[in-house]
Amino acid sequence: MSIPGIKTPTVAAAVGNLADFLNVSGEWHKKHSEQDGGMLSNLWYRGVNAHFEPQCPGVYRDSFTKRAEMFQIKGDIEDKRLRLERDMISNFRSAGAAFHVKHTPTEMYFSAQHFGMPTRLLDWSTNPLAALFFACEGEDGKDGFVYAMDARRVIPENAKKANGQRLWPSVMLMHNPLVDYAVKVSFWYDLNPSRRHPWKDRPAKLVFYFPHASRSSGR
Fold first, then answer.
1. How far is CA 107 from CA 112, 120, 175, 179, in A?
2. What is the pLDDT of residues 57-72, one digit of tens each?
3. Is residue 95 assigned to a domain?
4. 108, 155, 190, 212: least CB-packed within 10 angstroms?
5. pTM
6. Domain interval for residue 79
7. Domain tally, the chain
């Protein structure tokens, strides 16, 4: 089974100071941004302090997969990943119950990602300087990397919903129905794919990428 993730691109430009970074990122932004594109930027940035291939969420990294493999349950590795993820999110939900009284499952899931729990989320930022911060947050003498993408391209041009309708390329935020569905899979919700599942693929394989106005992760 292929691991969900974003293929890490080759380095387009090397910069040695803030001024160079602003020039390079500014030119890229000018080239790819939409005029009158609305309040939400479709251009996202991700900063990492080392090279990783591919850019994949915590649930699909080697350390999490090795832990999941130890589960003595029926099913393939994807079933075991989902079981470990569900156990962890259940513990997070119980331990922080006093702080999550008014939170929806989706808000809780984003909170778990913020505090370092492996999830199916991959942090991006609409602010290139936030990405640069995390790219520089490594060991001295080692290069960091900032990646940029058009968030609309996460959804392929020919993508369709289960009912056959086209799924238009767009920036999906926290409270989008598709996002809400994907998160509920990790909360032991009993969802009937034949009635509610908006995707044709197995729900456990869903991966979403979201921007944050002021934060990106180191990995």
1. 9, 14, 9, 11
2. 899 999 999 999 998 8
3. yes
4. 190
5. 0.72
6. 18-212
7. 1
